[in-house]
Write a structure and sequence with these properties.
Length: about 250
């Protein structure tokens, strides 16, 4: 999933009223950690209960994906709901990701790939944070424009692929292990990784503007969405690479 949420005017233009309290960087970091923890906890939970769930695990994954999508849309359109919807989103996505990881890991030829994707995602996120904090990379207006254009293009292609799927047509590059398909995934992984820089920049800008306290949850939600997007694309890339070795 691409991360258009932090680019919405509701995040950019909101200013705190005296009763709201002001957004802080420390608060945003704490809430980001809380959402990551909730996501991890529910992912572990689905692993622990998978034996008792049995065939229902697949149903749980599908239901979690749908609920997560609805919560993401609701949060993006009504940022004030983020203190409630963002934690719910984190827990539901944990079920989805944990279940997906469990299913893939149970296939011998895919065993270990989900954990490798997770490690690479964490490494990429940490690297982007280090580059941002040390100002090795500066988020300029041109960078924002290019990244927004790239994300919109990727979202449009995802939508096209979804629509074509209803007619039994597979969009090029989405699957398969050709070098073109792998190159396509590498581009998306690169864009998703760089999206962390936009998240960090927009959170910092919002803090400097004195934005309302609830946007700490909204900013944390945006970082989690980027993390999940990158993990899924990293996993897709590894699956394609694995296909070339098979």
């Amino acid at each position: 999933m691409a991360n258009p949420f932090l680019a919405r005017a509701g995040f950019t233009d909101a200013v705190a009223a005296p009763a709201d309290g002001q957004m802080t960087l420390a608060g945003s970091i704490t809430k980001t950690g809380a959402l990551m923890g909730l996501c991890a906890a529910s992912a572990i939970g689905i692993w622990v209960t998978s034996t008792s769930l049995g065939p229902s695990t697949s149903t749980a994954i599908m239901v979690a994906a749908i609920i997560g999508f609805v919560l993401a849309i609701a949060t993006s359109f009504v940022p004030k709901w983020a203190p409630v919807t963002a934690p719910l989103y984190a827990m539901v996505e944990g079920v989805f990701l944990g279940g997906l990881t469990l299913v893939l890991n149970s296939v011998p030829k895919y065993a270990g790939l989900p954990l490798t994707a997770l490690a690479l995602t964490m490494l990429a996120g940490g690297a982007m944070l280090a580059l941002y904090v040390t100002r090795v990379v500066h988020v300029t207006q041109r960078f924002r424009a290019v990244m927004l254009g790239a994300m919109l293009a990727i979202m449009a292609y995802y939508l096209l692929s979804f629509v074509l799927g209803f007619f039994g047509v597979q969009a090029p590059f989405m699957t398969g292990s050709s070098w073109a398909s792998i190159g396509f995934s590498l581009i998306i992984v690169g864009v998703a990784s760089l999206s962390f820089l936009l998240d960090f920049d927009m959170i910092e800008q919002a803090v400097n503007r004195g934005s309302p306290k609830y946007l700490e949850w909204y900013g944390a939600f945006g970082v989690l969405v980027t993390f999940i997007w990158l993990y899924l694309e990293m996993l897709r890339l590894l699956l394609k690479l694995n296909g070339r070795r098979s």
